[in-house]
Amino acid sequence: TLISIVAIIIGGATELFDFAYVLTFGIVIGTYSSIFIAAPLVDIYDQVIRKARD
């Protein structure tokens, strides 16, 4: 996906630059969310399930 964005930025029309910028922002925010928000929530959920089984 990032390769496609770079291709749009380098070879695309000026109208596509805004689209590529927003798409890059979305990828960065989505990656941050997956690593720093969703992973701890899954860990907490796993701990709750293990306590419930015991």
From TrEMBL:
Q: What is this protein called?
A: Export membrane domain protein
Q: Which residues cross the membrane?
A: 20-45
This chain's source organism reads Leptospira interrogans serovar Copenhageni str. LT2050
UniProt keyword Oxidoreductase present = no
The protein's UniProt keywords, in alphabetical order, are:
Membrane, Transmembrane, Transmembrane helix
Domain (Protein export membrane protein SecD/SecF C-terminal): residue spans on this chain: 1-45
